[in-house]
């Protein structure tokens, strides 16, 4: 059994920073994980890259050789990855043993989570290869400063959740940039009634029925749960993918004598 986190969503929301922090945190805890770059446009990394989509295909090559723009080029690269699940990805995964923990740093384009099935098929492939998979959906904390942004963030997250169909954790990034901590509290554990009233105040009266339906929908799917702390996130994800339930989970070998 292997374990995998798929770190997704908006461009610039802090996915690579999260991967790097997670790597350093696990290193401190003497627990091993491997970070995989799935972004064909990525250029530099703040963590050791264990597997890299750019060895299969890079955005620069696709744009140069096929004359595609950055977004269609990225879709082309990801579709190429999808075509190579059975060879490139399978060969790469063969380098990992039972109990290995992989963290996939993904590109942010919405298309990959709305209607293009690449990541869904990618996850299905990981599952066939005996990986337990969890999605981490990162949202910038500015999404919890305003009710309309909050609802749009919830809907986008929900669309990824129903498309990929694995355990899904919403993470609020860039918490240090929040100036009004009180508003954040309101959104971390929100009352549907309060959200509805805020939404109604922001929108013209003809949207009241739609607002009510949206809030009920979001509430029904328990989407209104975001977690802001890394330690809590890690234990929640471990629980979803049953990491640590077997005795032989991987930790870095160390000599306690050397540890001071
Ligand atoms: N203040 C603050 N900045 C952050 C935080 N996390 C990320 N950033 C900054 O936000 C920018 C984008 O972060 P990345 O980690 O590259 O975001 P990403 O989601 O990987 O971006 P793409 O791969 O381009 O989609 C960088 O300048 C980071 O330094 C945070 O917690 N606080
Ligand atoms: Mg990134």
UniProtKB/TrEMBL annotation:
Keywords in alphabetical order = GTP-binding, Hydrolase, Nucleotide-binding
Question: Which Pfam families does UniProt cross-reference here?
Answer: ATP_bind_1
- Domain of life of the native organism: Eukaryota
Recorded hits in Gene3D superfamilies, A to Z, give: P-loop containing nucleotide triphosphate hydrolases
Coiled-coil-forming residues are none
Role description: Small GTPase required for proper nuclear import of RNA polymerase II and III (RNAPII and RNAPIII). May act at an RNAP assembly step prior to nuclear import.
Put simply, this protein is called GPN-loop GTPase 3
The source organism is: Camellia sinensis (Tea plant)
